[in-house]
């Protein structure tokens, strides 16, 4: 497939009944790139991922995945893709080894024993091979699931919220592994709700209500949003948030002991406060706009349009 992107799809659309849950989505991901797929619950990430790996047929759209036609060559795509589903997709009542062996059988691997042994060694689970998968902690289950979807050495990994419910250390180890794999040429599309994980991706795609609202590097996504942000400090910030939300231009997000207030470039928060709350004990300082500020603004805006 040479210089061709690993994922190159246009106009992907999926309807369930009368609802369009993925609406005209186009995504390109280069080989070796880690693309973060973000968006609120129910925005269409899993449905898009399932169309990309040939598990779900799109109602409209076209393109190629790993050089194969998305509509006509879904079998070839499935063989070269590793898909880690949102919930632990392995069997709790099989041992670690049996789970890996089951996956190796499903791919019809001739060197099954060897592949499973190597995976157990790599995972550091060789001594615990006979332990039931259901007895593993969340972090170890996630490692096992990743090892299982890497057994057949895929060229593209589709990871659906792989680190949900996993502690920070396990998440950091996981991302280290993902970057190592990407450096070896593996392409990764990973859905996540964590902003720190979004920042670890080479590129981002943000979807809301089935529509792709932003794509690019984190810096590009922030720049395209055209927002400016202030950090507001002082007492009684709940009242500040309430007051600001009455005026549709401000997006307000609590950040520890401060609130972040974002608006389209050109708005002037200190001026607005001087006019609407001259006696209030709040100090506004301009801060760089972060990804979370952008995604909240994008989602609220999409919701306005939807309603
Ligand atoms: N098989 C199905 N039949 C009907 N509706 C479905 C089906 N699968 C998904 N949906 C709906 O499509 C919408 C998008 O779901 P999807 O799982 O793709 O979202 P998501 O972005 O992955 O959400 P989350 O972040 O919560 O995992 C949701 O409203 C969901 O209820």
From TrEMBL:
Record InterPro entries: AAA+_ATPase, ABC_transporter-like_ATP-bd, ABC_transporter-like_CS, P-loop_NTPase
GO molecular function: ATP binding
Coiled coil: none
Source species, domain of life: Bacteria
Keywords: ATP-binding, Cell membrane, Membrane, Nucleotide-binding
ABC transporter domain boundaries: 7-234
Name of this chain's protein: ABC transporter ATP-binding protein
Organism from which the protein derives: Caldimonas mangrovi
